Amino acid sequence: MATKEATNGSNTTNGECKITRPPPTPSPLRFSKFFQANLRILVTGGAGFIGSHLVDKLMENEKNEVIVADNYFTGSKDNLKKWIGHPRFELIRHDVTEPLLVEVDQIYHLACPASPIFYKYNPVKTIKTNVMGTMNMLGLAKRVGARILLTSTSEVYGDPLEHPQTEEYWGNVNPIGVRSCYDEGKRVAETLMFDYHRQHGIEIRIARIFNTYGPRMNIDDGRVVSNFIAQALRGEPLTVQKPGTQTRSFCYVSDMVNGLIKLMEGPSTGPINIGNPGEFTMLELAENVKELINPEIELKMVENTPDDPRQRKPNITKAKEILGWEPKVTLREGLPLMEEDFRQRLAIPKKGAI
Ligand SMILES: NC(=O)c1ccc[n+]([C@@H]2O[C@H](COP(=O)([O-])OP(=O)(O)OC[C@H]3O[C@@H](n4cnc5c(N)ncnc54)[C@H](O)[C@@H]3O)[C@@H](O)[C@H]2O)c1
C-alpha cells in the first residue's frame, strides 16, 4: 500500500493526481555546516490546543528547531510557556493571512480556530485564514522547498451520507450555512494543497482530523467534551443537544500528535483520516462524564445548532496500512487526564484532596 503513494509522487485516493514538476530545491540551510539542528520546523497555530502538544513532542527531539507562528486568537502563550527562552524554540506573533518569510524544512499548518463558537464569531476571517493562510504557507513551502502538512477536518465530509467515512467520500456539505466558513474553507485549503502539489511539485500532507480532546482545550469553547467536563466540575447540568443520539468519535491528543508526525514523516500525501473510530452518542458521552466526575449531576436537553452532523466516525484503514498508526488511548483513559487539567485551571480540587 505504501508504495502506491510514493513521496511527492503521484497520488492517491483515485489515482488522478499527477505532479507535473519536480519539487523545488530544499533550503541551502539544510546543508549548511553551521546549521546545528537537523530540521527546522514551523508550526502555525502552535499556541493552540493540538499545536502546543505537537510542539511538546517535536521539541523532545534534540535535532529539531521549532518556530511557532500564531496570532493568539484562540491560542495562548501559556500553552508554550515551558519552551519560551529555549534555544531551539522561537515564538512569533503572526497572522497567517499575511505572508511569512522563514527558512524552514517542514511546515505543520494548523492555524485556524477549530471550535464553532470561535470560527462562527468572525466567519469572514475564518475563511480568509483557511484560504489566504493556506496560500501563504504554500507560497512559503514553494520558496524554501519545505514539506507542508495541513490539518484538515472531518467537517469536509459535512453531514455524511456514508458511514464510517473513508477518504474517498466527497462529502455532503452545505456551501452557504453558518458552518461553511470552516467546512468549505478547509475544502478549499485541501484543493490549494493539491494544486500546489500538481503544479509546483510541493511536498504535501493532508490530515483529516476527527474530534480530538485532551488537556489545554479552551474551557467554555463550546466543544462537547470540554463543555461537559467544565459543567460537571462546576456542578451545572450537562447540556446535551437534541436528539442526543448524534454520534462523534473522540481521539486523545497524544494519539493525534503521533498520527500527525507519522503522516509528515511518511510516504503518503493523504488525505488520511486521523481519529479514533470508537463511536459514542452525545448521551453516552454525557453519562461517561457524569459517572467520572459527579454522578448526581443532571442532563438537560437543549436545541441543536444548524447543520450539526448526525454521525461521525472515521474509517482509519489507510492510517493503519500506510502509516502504521492507530489510536491507543480510550475515552475512559483520556477523560480523567482532561478532568485533572480542567480542575487545575478552574481551581476546583477533587473532593477529599487537600
Ligand atoms: N480539535 C479538533 O477536534 C480538530 C478537529 C478537526 C480539525 N482540527 C484542526 O486542527 C487545527 C488545530 O485545532 P485546535 O483544536 O488546536 O484549535 P485551537 O483553536 O486550539 O488552535 C488554533 C490555533 O490557531 C491560531 N490561529 C487562528 N487563526 C490564526 C491566524 N489567522 N493566524 C495565526 N494563527 C491563527 C489560534 O490562535 C490557535 O492558537 C485546526 O486547523 C483545526 O481546524 C481540530
TrEMBL record:
Keyword list, A-Z: Cytoplasm, Decarboxylase, Lyase, NAD
EC top class named in words: lyase
Pfam families recorded: GDP_Man_Dehyd (PF16363)
GO biological process terms on file: D-xylose metabolic process; UDP-D-xylose biosynthetic process
Keyword flag Iron: no
NAD(P)-binding domain sequence ranges: 42-336
GO MF terms, alphabetically ordered: NAD+ binding; UDP-glucuronate decarboxylase activity
Reaction equation(s) it catalyzes: UDP-alpha-D-glucuronate + H(+) = UDP-alpha-D-xylose + CO2
Enzyme nomenclature, EC number: 4.1.1.35
Location relative to the cell: Cytoplasm
GO cellular component assignments: cytoplasm
Major site of localization recorded for this protein: cytoplasm
Biased composition (Polar residues): 1-15
Homology family: Belongs to the NAD(P)-dependent epimerase/dehydratase family. UDP-glucuronic acid decarboxylase subfamily.
Protein name: UDP-glucuronate decarboxylase
Organism: Carex littledalei
